[in-house]
Amino acid sequence: MTELFADIEPEPRGRFGRDAPWLRRLLLVVFAVLIALVLGGLTGQEAMRSEADGPRARLTLSAPDTVRGGLLFQARVEIHPRVAIAKPRLVLARGWLEGMQVSSIEPQPASETGVRGNVILSYDRLAPGESMTIWLQFQVDPTNVGKRPAFVLLLDGMRPLATISHTLTVLP
Predict the structure, then answer these.
(1) What would the pLDDT profile of 59-98 be if each residue is shown by its tens digit?
(2) Cα dist. 1→5, 6, 8, 119 in Å?
(3) Is residue 119 within 8 Å of 96, Cβ to Cβ?
(4) 65, part of any domain
(5) Over the Cα atoms of the chain, what is R_g?
(6) What does the DSSP 8-state code read for residue 44?
(7) Gap between the Cα atoms of 152 and 165, Å rounded
């Protein structure tokens, strides 16, 4: 009797056994949820607006607080002086540049220097009521995951005028 069934192979069970259809469906649901989160904007890239208002100037930052590796993003800094700023200098914390590629800074500063890992962009004199907008474009290195301080400080020479505290979170 066993010779009659010798040529019949057992029913194939698939790579994951009998639960293979449910496992495949679960993986599809997980990917669908991830795609929905990305499309819904819940994984970063949305620009947040922050403002620091001092007696001599108002500083505004529009930048995402969460970015994803490999993507491009823009930060915009606006300076609104109430009095003349003889030597406007914008200090960017090292968090803006760590693991980032700087695509462009517009307008270009008159000079650029670094102090303790921070970057200082120096511009020409600003008159009261004359505003200045600085656009900063970055690309995030994919291996640069984590949180870092990314403050922006406005100086007149060495005198602080306004500071915006900002934290930048990089997702994989």
Answers:
(1) 999 999 888 888 899 999 999 999 999 999 999 999 998 8
(2) 7, 9, 13, 85
(3) yes
(4) yes
(5) 26
(6) S
(7) 7
